Amino acid sequence: MFIAHQKYAHTHLMEVSKNKSILLTNTRPPTSGEIAFWARFGYTVHHQALLSVRLLPVNQLDVDPQAIVLTSANGALALEHSDWDRSIPVYGVGIATATTAKSVGFIECSSPSDKPYPSALNLINWIKNNLDPQDGVIVFGCGEHLRHDIAEELSKFGFQMLKILLYKTEQVEKFTAEIARALKNRNIGSVAINSEQVIKAFTTLCQKSDIAFKDFNIVVSGEFLKNCAIQLGYVKIFVVQQNHQTRNKQQKFIDKQ
User: Fold this and answer.
1) Of 12, 19, 52, 64, which residue is 20 to 30 A from 251 by alpha carbon distance?
2) 50 vs 28: CA distance, rounded Å
3) Residues 120, 147: contact at Cβ < 8 Å?
4) How far is CA 85 from CA 63, 65, 67, 198, in A?
C-alpha cells in the first residue's frame, strides 16, 4: 500500500502516476522480487546506482560471535574474501542481504522479512525476540552512514555488540546518458529512494543535469525519508507500507538464484 504526502493525501501512487516507469537507485541491481513487485502494478523498472561502493579490508574476528547482523547486501559482499567462519548464522535486513551472504559462503542466512523494502527496525525487534544476550557477542557489519545503529539499539537490551565498518559509499558523478535523457523527458515519472544519502544524491545530480526534480514521484520506505524529501522541496512523496512477517529462529530463506 502507498500513502501520499500533501495534495495526494488520499490517493495511491498507482492511481496518480500515468507514467508507469520507475527508477530504482540501489547500489546493487534490482532483485527479481523487486522487479516483480513493480510489475504487479504495471511499472517498467529502470536502475542506476546513485552511490558508488568501496568495500573495505576485513580483519580476522577476535571473538566467537553467536551471529552476524547485516543491513545491506554491500556488507555481505565485503565478507566474500574474509576468513570469517561461514558457520556463523547471518541475519540480514531483507532477502537480498541474506541471499548475498549465502552467495559468499555463509551457510545459515535468514531475514525477518522477504519484502522488497525491509525495515531495520523490524530486524532489531526480531533479534530482541529471538536471540539471547547470554549466547554471546553479535557482530554488526555496516556501512559508514547509518539511519538505525543496530549495535547501539540492541546494546540497550543487554546484547554485547561489536560494530565493524565493512564499506563506504560516495555519490556518483553523474547520471548515465540514458537515465538523464529519460528523466529530462519525463519518460521516468517515479524514483524509489532507500536512504537520506541517496535522495540528496538524486537532487544534486538533477541540479547538475538541469533536470527539474520537484515534480517526480518519490517513493520511500518510511516517515524519516518522507521528511527528508519534504525538506528538499519534493511534493509528491509516497510511503511504501507493507506487512512484515516475523519468522521464527529456525526458518531460513532458500536462495532461489
Assistant:
1) 64
2) 10
3) yes
4) 11, 10, 11, 33
Residue type, 40: R
| 65: nearest Cα among 151, 140, 121, 152 | 140
End-to-end CA gap in the chain: 27
Residues 90, 70 contacting (CB under 8 angstroms):
yes
For domain 54-170, which CATH number applies: 3.40.50.620, 3.40.80.10, 3.40.50.10090, 1.10.10.10? 3.40.50.10090
Based on its alpha-carbon atoms, the radius of gyration of the chain, rounded to whole angstroms, reads 19
Q: Is 203 helix (H, G, I), strand (E, B) or coil?
A: helix
- What CA–CA distances, in Å, run from 157 to 83, 119, 143, 146, 249? 30, 19, 23, 19, 18
